[in-house]
Design brief:
By secondary structure, the chain is an alpha+beta fold. It has 2 domains: 175 residues, Aminopeptidase; 145 residues, 3-Layer(aba) Sandwich (Aminopeptidase), CATH 3.40.630. 31% of the residues lie in helices and 31% in strands. It has 9 helices and 14 strands. The strands form 2 sheets. Strands 1-2-3-4-5-14-8-13-12-11-10-9 form a 12-stranded mixed β-sheet, sandwiched between helices. A two-stranded antiparallel sheet has the order 6-7. Strand 12, helix 8 and strand 13 form a beta-alpha-beta unit. Helix 5 crosses helix 8 and helix 6 crosses helix 7. The longest helix has 18 residues. It binds coenzyme A. The site of coenzyme A has 20 residues, from strand 4, helix 3, strand 5 and helix 4.
Length: 365
Amino acid sequence: MVSIRKVPRTATATEPAAALLRGYVDVQNELARLTWSGDDYVRTPEEVLAAHDDDGLVVRLVAVDDDAPDEPAPDAVLGTGLVYMPLRDNTSWAYLGVGVRPPHRGRGLGTLLHDAATSIAREHERTTFMAETDHGAEPPEGPGAITAPTGAGRIPADDPGVRFLGSRGWQLEQTSRRSLLRLPVDPDLLERLHRESLAAAGTDYRTVGWDGPVPDAWHDAMARLFAVMSDGTPMAGIEYEQELWDTARVRRRDEEHERRGITSWTTAVQHVPTGDLVGYSVIMAIPPSTTFLHQEDTLVLPEHRGHRLGMLLKTENLRRTVAARPDAERIGTWNAEENDHMLAINIALGFRPSGCGGVFQRKLG
Ligand SMILES: CC(C)(COP(=O)(O)OP(=O)(O)OC[C@H]1O[C@@H](n2cnc3c(N)ncnc32)[C@H](O)[C@@H]1OP(=O)(O)O)[C@@H](O)C(=O)NCCC(=O)NCCS
């Protein structure tokens, strides 16, 4: 028989009591390598342990054989569950994740983990849930593919995760596209796109940039942008409300990044007549990988769109990042498949489709 245990919050990732955490990360890494055939999304127990802050509650679960010792070896952990619950906003919402090592699938472990995760979320009065599936490639049109209700993007119908969620009351709401940019970017292309976007932006806009934490002077401005970003991308049917951000939360975000060993490069765009920041773009290096970088948020406030500020932000931030990390080989990013404007910018820069994801929602009365 198999039982579900909660991963305890330990002081370190190396002490004996962190055995379940190490097993949790080992399962996650096995699944990440299977989907992405490489180490781009491989994590360390140290970084995972540090990935929390006071703005959300993270509960991690593992499935182990009943007779497993209290501190089992990593490979004795057979599957994982995750519940993430925001605490400042979205207090009836939770993110759920379930993963089982392939040799142990099809005997109910996923269901046990899913139900345990759901119960924990319900105990915290959560009623709207989101979960995602990852796929190394978008399937061709046809009976083997499920198209999102948005009409944009497909996921494989026979994927075990898609089938699993589909038979447990989850609805596919959206698909997301993973795109990959191989470095170095053609310097002529980058310069041309940068020059063109500078010219289109004109003298009303200028960029400001920083490495790592948000400078004190921009805390308020970035709090506003992080809030707009939180529900400002195409959300399809996903019910997620705008997050509440203030200066203290910006600081907590940066402290979390520091604990996780994240290095980041940010470019923001300032509207010169008002002095306001009206957009930003962030690239991150998340350890342990040193050659793979993550293109994270890019936002231009709706009232400032149409001036090529998105391209300006991305080209400027790419220049900053590759100057700091000349050894980087690839940048990965995720976008809603219907996010035409962002995808067009990425494609112009040389990003190419490299996998996809299904975004599912389940609502309990
Ligand atoms: C999705 C996933 C977690 C399922 O794990 P699992 O341990 O195989 O889950 P279960 O065994 O409980 O259920 C899988 C199937 O086996 C069936 N099953 C369960 N117990 C069974 C048993 N004793 N004998 C035969 N079949 C069984 C279930 O009915 C289910 O069928 P369905 O997919 O048609 O609903 C696993 O495939 C996985 O890790 N995928 C990658 C991550 C992912 O996509 N997660 C989902 C989104 S968070």
